[in-house]
Amino acid sequence: MATWQPTSFEPLFRTGSTITGVWNKQRYLVESMLGRGANGEVYRVVKPNGERLALKVSPQSSDIALEHKILHQLQGVARGIDLGPLVFDLDDADTPRGKAFFYVMEQVHGTSLPPFLKKRGGHWLPVLLLQLCTYLERMHKLGFCFGDLKAENCLVDEKRGRLRLVDFGGVTPFGRGVKEYTEWYDRAWWGQGSRRADESYDVFALTMMAVALLAPDLRHKLALLTVPNFSLLQQSVRADPRLAPWRDLLGAVWSGRVTTVERFRERLMPMVKASVQQEQRAADAAPRQDWSDWLLLGSAAVLVGAVCLIFL
Q1: Which domain holds residue 24?
Q2: Which of 135, 134, 170 is nearest to 150 (CA)?
C-alpha cells in the first residue's frame, strides 16, 4: 500500500471516523483535529473506555518513531516532572488514502504563555524557563536538540505553575540539520550560526523566547523586516526597559559566552530568586479582605511550588 501524502486542504481523518492500529489493534474515535504541522496532523481521539487522548499521524514512519522514542525516554525526568506529553501506543494505520504512521499521547491542557504572563506578571518567565532548562538538559544528555523551541509550543498549568511542551516535531539528533524550525527563534535565520543541531541552538532559542514574550511589539516590528537585522535587535534590547533585567544574560548568549543550558540556568537563577521574592512581597502587602486577595496569596504559593518542583 502506498503511503498517505498530506494536503493543505483535506485532513486525513474526519470527525466520527475510527482509527484502528494494524499491529496493536487499538481503536480510536476521532473527535476533532487539534492542529497541522510540517510533518503531520494531530487529532483529539477517544478510546472505547472513554479516555481522551491526542493522536499524531505522519507519512514518515521514521519521524513518528523518533518522536515516540524521545518522549518515552524523557518521561519522568527531573524527579517526576513530565514537561512533555506522556506517550502510549505506536502503530500504523491503513486508510483509503494510503498507509499512515501514528503515536498516541496524553492531551496536554493549559494556558499559552502570553495570556499567562499578562495575568500573572512577566516576573514568572524566569521560573518557567528554569523548568524548561531542566527538561532540555535531560534531552541534551540523550544527544538530542529540541529544534523548534518557541513560546507557541508551551502551555502552563495555572494551578501548579507548571510548564508543558506540546510539539516535538523539531527534535533532531545532535550533528544533523534542524529541519523544522521557526525563523524568529532560529539562529541561522539571524546569521548567528548554523542550523546544525547542538545544545547552543536551543540556548539561542531560549533568549528569543524571552524577547518575544516580554516585548511582543518589538518582535512584531523586527519580524516584518525583509532581511533579519541582528544588530538592530541588539540595539532594541539595550533600549527597551522591559528587557533590562535580561540584558546581561541575552548578551552572554549572543556573544558566545554562554552556550550550554547549564550555564544559562546559572545566569537565570538570580532572576528566579527575585521573581519569588517579588511574588511573596505582593502577597504580604495585600490586605486580604476579599477572595481576590487570597488569589494573590495562592499565586505566590504556586510560584514557590513551581521552583520546588525542580529543586526539592
Answers
A1: 18-105
A2: 170
